[in-house]
Model the fold of this input.
Amino acid sequence: MNSSPSPSHFKGKTAQEHLKKARMKGMIASSEIHGIEMSGSQAAFADSLKDTALALLALWSMSISLFDKSVIHVIMILFSISWIIWKPARSAILGWGRLERLHRLIEEERWEIEHNREQERLELTEMYQAKGFSGRLLEESVDVLMSDDNRLLQVMLEEELGLTLEVHEHPLKQAFAAFLGSSTSTGLILLSALFLPKLLTPAIGFLLVSLSSILTARLERNKKTSGLIWNLSSAAFVVASTYLLGNLFSKLQ
Amino acid sequence: MLQDTPPYVFDEFFASGKEEVISPFLTKNSRKWSANLKLKSSLLAAFLLIISFFLSSTCIPVSDFLLLTVYFLVGTPALIDTLNDLKSLEINIDVLMTLAALLSILIGSGFEGALLLVLFELSASMENAVTMKTKGALSSLSHLSPQKAFFINSSGEVWERSVKDIKVGSTILVKAGEIIPLDAKVIQGYSQVNLSHLTGESIPITKRPGDEVPAGARNLDGSLTLEVVRTSYDSTLTRIIQLITHAQEAKPKLQKLIDKLGDKYAILIMSIALLFALLLPLFFSSIPFLGNEGSIYRALTFLIAASPCALVIATPTAYLSSISSCAKKGILLKGGIVLDAISSCKRIAFDKTGTLTSGILKCSSFTPILSEIDTDLGLAMAASVEQHVVHPIATAFIDFAQIKNLSLPAIDQFKATPGFGVEAFCTLDEKKYKIFIGHYEYVSSHFSEALQKKMNLLTFNKALPNQVFSFVLIGENVFVATFSDEVKTESLSTIQYLQNQLHMDAAMLTGDHHENAEAVGSFLGITKVYSNLRPEDKLKIVSDLSSKKGLIMVGDGVNDAPALMRATVGVSMGKIGSATAIDASDVVFLQDDLSSLTWLIRKAHKTMSIIKQNLSLALGVILLATSPAILGFVPLWMAVVLHEGGTVLVGLNSLRLLKK
Done:
């Protein structure tokens, strides 16, 4: 109701915006993204950038020992095209899958509010008791929340289910970011493979992995250095393994 | 201090059927990615298909890649829909089209298959986009009905509670300007309430202790303490919602019939294709093209030839052209099928207030009964007092004074007696006048003895049908102002055209008194006049009228909503119409111009004529191509040419409806 200056730790945001951001932070902190893309176009970009760079590096390293130069480039181009199609498609499919789950949850919660008002009141009482409310204050707080179904639904979604409204990006926007990530990686690595000295290709690949690792660490608010080193060493392990195994297979042939 | 942020409003999201474009989980900025996604995707597919076609002779791999993209964009959703249909054991035109399109790849006719899919998807998405634009659901009723009420507990404390938690017998408080949240009985206070949502009438009614007030009515001037008589689950508004829902379910659905015929057609075509592909080689194995090796080729040629592409677009393209043409004229149609229904109607029923009349009270006269001061001065003083009031009569007073270009004098000590009238003082030329405005009973209670005696000797009207009277006492001068709801200028010519040129039976349905209804009916030449109707009465009459002949119902109020829904076609006025009436109707006149009705009916007849031509053409092409195709006399390319040629002709014919 006022426009008084927001406290400094809100960083120019309103209390509500700050709360929304804080919840998003909580959600990122608690989610493990193994196999599931983190919400947001920046995360999709970073993920796609890293995956593409790593996949092309692995392909490049195995092809050194297995294929001749003309075939390497064709294989890399064809692989890149399929990868550029797959990464945004995967991102959009995951985004839509998440949205479907969220919509199902909100529908179920609305049904609960509509049909089990007494139980919802008990749930609210329980939640606010746990927050330290008691007696008349507790009763009044529950009454206020129960008086408006929209507010009640929002409270139940946020406090019971731990969901936050208006924080997810549209699946297509996320897919577009994934497309940009994979295209950037593909473009730079292919250009270097086609026109630059041989050793610059892995250098550019590792540079992209590094950039993506730093961006991901920043989004997850993790330590950048350790994130960078772990990712780089994993990437080096992948590239070296494929190179060595490629050598082994070429000798066996 | 914390910002007072209103809770997120989920109602619209649920009413839309959980549309992604208003998903509460998506950021506001990214929701626009969902807008008309189906349409955008099919337009992109159409564009890629054109490029693919031009590249097919010069750069085949790129052309094929683009074609593959087309199949991905429009084939994937079609395949999902088809599998869903098959899962629910439903074999319809969608299944036939998808099957024909996908099988055509197997025989190297990927272009034809893609074209089939693009046209089909484009037509479906355009219909979807139009429907989404006009779709409204009943959520507007929840805007009309408050979700919360001020509950008074046993110790007299006032609490805000959800109406769902308020039981019968509870006491609630409704302040001036608020909407009554539940059906209740007045136990304390006087006020004027507007019942336009129930009766359609905009003239306020005074409510006193003991009177019942329905949920949804607007409390105009006083504060009312009410005892709840019905819970939110069976309030008047909920009953209206139920009436609308039932009316919707009972409405004849031509679309269902078309789908049903489509299902049978699809099954028949697929069975014939399969049967002939399997059986003909057994009997005619010696004839070229009829042997085993040609059976799949023939079956697919037959499927393509019989794919009802022209048949499928015969109606939607005609409807879409008409919808577009109507939109240019300010008429919004909720789907093209409405035009079909309009052309079948032989009867038309009108609501009175707001439809045939303007629905706005206008001051038609301000006359002295006993006065020594100038009439215009009296009007100026009365309008000046009414400036302090929010009320339809007050607005009419002020408008009337403005028309006469009167400058309004200053007043002081304004006081309102809710449910009765207003009073104030006005000083002019060092003379102070006390002014009272309201019902005759209220104003006359302030007459001096001498004035009362003089008034007793006079004869004048205190009430007349179709008119509202307001008395003004300024010092010892008495005036009467009359207010009425005027018949719209275009109403008479429209009714005459409908009855004389289009030979339709016209009727009038109103919640207003019999005398008022008869007066308007006889002026307009409408003989069938039904008055004193509540929403359920209107619904019953509309059901009776539409059971024998198709009926167009034209209305604007919430009270008309069930009738609009039940009628063969419901038409509502967009500007003055309630959101609920607009939701319940099939046609919305954005300009509130009643004369558009005759244009719309003529357009509907024209559309039906074009559709008949289209269907004949499409069926003719199918008959011409399918029989020789099954016998192997028509090669695949010719089947495609005939098929697509028919489709183009049908599309061009439909475009004729775009003309205004």
